[in-house]
Amino acid sequence: MGWMKDETGLDKCAANYVPLTPLSGLNRALEVFPDHLAVAYGAHRKTYREYHERVTRLASALTRLGVAPGDVVSTILPNIPAAAEAHFGVPACGGVLNSINIRLDVHTVAYIFDHGEAKVVLVDTEFLPLAEAACEEMQGDAPIIIEVADAANGHPATGRYPEYEDLLAGGDPGFDWVLPEDEWESIALNYTSGTTGHPKGVVYHHRGAYLNAMGQVISWRIVLHPVYLTIVPLFHCNGWCHTWMMPMVGGTVVCCRDITATNIFNAIADEGVTHFGGAPIVLNMLVNAPESQRRSFDHVVEVFTAGAPPAPATLAKIEPMGFHVTQVYGLTEVYGPATECLWDHARWDDLEGADRAAIKARQGVAMPFIEHVTVLDETMTQIPMDGETQGEIMIRGNGVMKGYLKNPDATAEAFKGGYFHSGDIAIQHPDTYVQITDRAKDIIISGGENISSVEVEGVLMHHPAVSLAAVVAKPDEKWGEVPCAFIELLEGATAEEAEVIAFARKELAGFKTPKKVVFQELPKTSTGKIQKFALRKLAKEI
Which residues form the AMP-binding enzyme C-terminal domain (predicted)? Predict the structure, then answer.
């Protein structure tokens, strides 16, 4: 080892060091897979050569609109080709992509526009009213709206704004991409439901996006030319980085605007879909689909599921249908999936029914790009791996965010002790596999969407008859969980369930609105703190 102390002349240079970025995957695909189908969406079918040109034109057009390196470009798009193109076109002009959840309410979108200082926003015609209302409510300068029409699916252009295809037509196909000089440069900004009402802006870097996309190729056992169906919204952790992954393996992205059993079965049968990710609600949809909506197919479809463990009954039915399900776990702060329930064939292949489902319900072990996933107690000490002792899931590695935008205190808190604190309570089995026992106290996960109970409570507290409000998760067959509100009324006041739900719906997105309201005195500790664990138990019994 002695001679290694002298590293004279062994420096980084253009020949031996290039900052990591998922953009490199699409540049390579242009050379290696130019005529292979890159994106399919009905009649819209683009090869890698065409995909690369459209991305280049988008980067050029955004630059002409005044987007400079480091500026934020937002999108309010369902899973359509423009959403995939933005994943490359925005960073290719040096911009930071901010994909906004299409199900959010006006106030939250206005906050995101203001907080992220979006310069431009690409908006699907269906969601123009949301974008317009959010712009009206903003404190700062509103972003330039570019309308993305989808006439083939009933959303023709309104003519009120520059249209996306016209924008691309005006872009330069010879534009030189602005590649990162430093792989720590930001590539994306994603807003997450925190445990407070305002969402936090999670910042990703090029390095993490590249490593996450590459690492999942290993975890998902992907070989060349997979056909990937976009069920995970591209606004959720950038679609779990899967769109960035596809050019690396010459894959085809099949866009799915409306997630229905019919559309999923058609995509598998007609496009030969081999891979998709989605919440357990999607698996339930497929299992419960009537014969009239099903199509036969003769290959195994690999499925990553997350958000909650799939029910044993669902697993028992879906695997014989031709789906191989792997549970993964992650958060916005770790670019989507960070752990996988890696299957140990020697130990588990013979398991059936509930025993098999019990293993599949584990969140598992770190994916290859994550340095360490473990469960620690309050003193940052490893808990006993006995499958019983509880602690908090902690994550360390290159697949962890840079931090929260404009929120150094929250960032420092999240990274205390050298790990990212997930807020999720879990046990660890003797083989190191992690298993969640209790979601972070205040978050409700409904159909894969995170809902802050604090935000919902804040709205309910504005009702003139409400003294106290507590919102917890109520188990739901379709959505996994839905918000259930327990309300203590002011003395002498009265209120009806339907009226309270309607009141909340005026301020909140539909999925955040309580589906059940119970009027009662709330259980409290001696210090007056509401005992949510008791309410969760009640919600389960309703």
Answer: 455-529
Read off the CATH number of the domain in which 525 is found: 3.30.300.30
Work out the average pLDDT over 58-63: 98
Q: What CA–CA distance (Å, rounded) separates 539 from 516?
A: 9
Tokens of 71: 């500026």
Q: Does the residue 457 lie in any domain?
A: yes
Whether the predicted pLDDT of 428 surpasses 70 = yes
Can you give the residue range of the structural domain that contains 454?
443-541
From 540, 539, 492, 541, select the one nearest 517 (Cα to Cα): 539
Give the pTM: 0.87
Q: DSSP code of 182?
A: S
List, in sequence order, every residue forming a beta bridge with 114; answer none if it has no partner: none
Let me know if residue 213 belongs to a domain: no
Neighbours of 159 (CB within 10 A): 8
Q: What is the spatial distance between Cα 423 and Cα 149, in angstroms, rounded to a whole number?
A: 40
3-class secondary structure, 495: coil
pLDDT value of residue 528: 58
User: 460, 452 in Cβ contact below 8 A?
Assistant: no
Compute the average pLDDT of residues 528-533: 76
Give the separation between CA 123 and CA 10, rounded to whole angstroms: 49
Q: Is 322 helix (H, G, I), strand (E, B) or coil?
A: coil
Angle, CA 245 vertex, CA 257 and CA 54 arms, to 5°: 65
Tracing tokens 């969406």 back to the chain, one arrives at 41
Encoding tokens for residue 486? 């327990």
Partners of 305 in the β-ladder? 278, 327
Q: At 461, is the pLDDT very low, low, confident or very high (cuts 50, 70, 90)?
A: confident
Token representation of residue 285:
């949809």
Amino acid type, 146: I
Q: How far is Cα 51 from Cα 34, in angstroms, rounded to an integer? A: 9
3-state secondary structure of 140: coil
pLDDT in tens, 90-108: 999 999 999 999 989 899 9
What are the pLDDT digits (tens) for 127-153?
A: 999 999 999 999 999 999 999 999 999
| Contact between residue 276 and residue 300 where contact means Cβ atoms under 8 Å apart | no
Cα Rg of the chain (Å, integer): 24
Pairing of strands 323-331, 301-305: parallel
Helix (H) or strand (E) run with residue 110 in it: helix 106-116
Q: For residue 436, is it within any domain?
A: no
Residue 431 within a domain: no
**Which helix (H) or strand (E) covers residue 240, if one does?**
helix 237-240
- pLDDT the model gives residue 4: 66
Number of domains in the chain: 1
Q: In what order do the strands lie in the sheet with 434-438?
A: 370-376, 391-397, 420-428, 434-438
Closest to 210 (Cα-Cα) out of 181, 177, 248? 248
Structural contact between residues 62 and 95, judged by C-beta atoms closer than 8 angstroms: yes
